Amino acid sequence: MTTTHPHSATHHQAHSHVGTAAVDPERWPDVAAVPRASWPVRAVAESVVGRALRRLPLRVRFAGGATLGLGGPLIEVHDPKAFHARIGTRGLIGFGESYMAGEWDAPDLVGALTVLAAHAADLIPARLQRLRGMWAQRQPDAQRNTLDGSRSNVSRHYDLSNDLFALFLDETLSYSSALFRGFPAEWSLLATAQHRKIDRLLDLAEAGEGTRLLEIGTGWGELALRAAARGAHVTSLTLSKEQRELALERVRQAGLADRVRIDLCDYREARGTYDAVVSVEMIEAVGAEFWPVYFRTLDEHLAPGGRVAVQAITMPHERMLAAQDTYTWIQKYIFPGGLIPSTTAIEQAVGEHTGLAVAIRNGFGAHYAETLRLWRERFTDQADEVAALGFDETFRRMWTFYLAYSEAGFRSGYLDVQQYLFTKETPAR
Question: What is the pTM of this model?
Answer without folding.
Answer: 0.91
